[in-house]
Amino acid sequence: MNYQGVLTKMESEFAQPIQYYLVFENDFINMNQLLGKTISIRFEKYQCLNCGLNKPIYRQGFCRDCFFDIPQAADWVIRPELSKAHLGEEDRDLEYEKKVQLQPHIVYLANSSDVKVGVTRKSQVPTRWIDQGAHEAIEIVETPNRYLAGITEVALKDFVSDKTNWRTMLKNDIKDEDLVAWRERLKSSIPEEAQDYFIENNSEINLEFPVLQYPVKPKSLNLVKAQSYTGKLVGIKGQYLIFEDDTVFNIRSNEGLVVTITVA
Ligand SMILES: [Zn+2]
User: Taxonomically, which superkingdom (predicted)?
Assistant: First the structure.
């Protein structure tokens, strides 16, 4: 079987275990069904997720020109504390910014390698946790806009990381943490403006990933450099495909690449 299309991050379904789908224009693949099978991935060309042109991808699936121009790639996307739509101030496109920023946001704790703090739109729970490969997570603050969630995250970063160590996450070198206890410890460090939005009563969510075999020394596949790769798929965690020879391929950081996938 051959599938061809432009890579975008895998869609997922919160199930036991999590279900992953690679979605192409005319086709989709339930990746869980490929576990244990040998697959080939070949790089064909680039296709910017905004302009569609065959130009090298700069970041987030966009070519350089699009990345510095379109509202989906503005700084407040990665740094929520820079959000300004609640003040009626435009960054790149006020209508777009209002639509995305002025909706419920969640500040959460997720444990993928260590406990980290993050921000996501409420509609993206638990997708965001799945994408990060977190095996447990909890919502701690629900704010009415992105800005308030952003300043909360910044304040909590003094006490907890905001990064995932992808090697640790993939090796499944994890320890179980009591996230309710973490939430209680961090409560007093939430900024004044966001205190009212603290979530008092909830419990942590556990996530189970479809992995037959964890890598011992994960090595990341650079598909553009290698042009093609063939290996036996043994797991999916976060947005990574894990292969039997310890090669791992991050679908998310390869968005905008047109590939052909062949299933033996
Ligand atoms: Zn472009």
Answer: Bacteria
Select from 79, 61, 248 the least CA-distant residue to 162: 79
Query: For residue 138, what pLDDT is reported?
Result: 98
DSSP character at residue 103: S
| Residue 204 per-residue DSSP state | -
d(CA 244, CA 69): 40
Taking the centre of ligand 1 as the mean of its atom positions, its distance from the CA of residue 56, in whole angstroms, is 9
> How far is the centre of ligand 1, averaged over its atoms, from the C-alpha of 261 (Å)?
24
Cα of 53 to ligand 1 centre, how many Å? 6
First to last CA, the chain: 7
CB within 8 Å of 105: residues ≥ 6 apart: 80, 119, 120, 121, 122, 142, 143, 144, 145, 146, 148, 149
Kindly report the backbone phi and psi dihedral angles of residue 207, in degrees, each rounded to the nearest multiple of 5, phi listed first: -120, 140
Q: What is the mean pLDDT of the chain?
A: 97
**Beta-carbon neighbour count of residue 53 at 10 Å?**
12
Whether omega for the bond prior to residue 56 falls within 30 degrees of 0, making it cis, is no
Confidence category of residue 174, pLDDT binned at 50, 70, 90: confident
**pTM higher than the cut 0.85:** yes
* Six token digits for residue 43: 């790089």
Task: For residue 16, report the phi and psi dihedrals to the nearest 5 degrees.
Answer: -110, 100
| Cβ contact 65:50 at 8 Å | no
Q: 162 in helix, strand or coil?
A: coil
Residue 46 · residue 54 · CB < 8 Å = yes
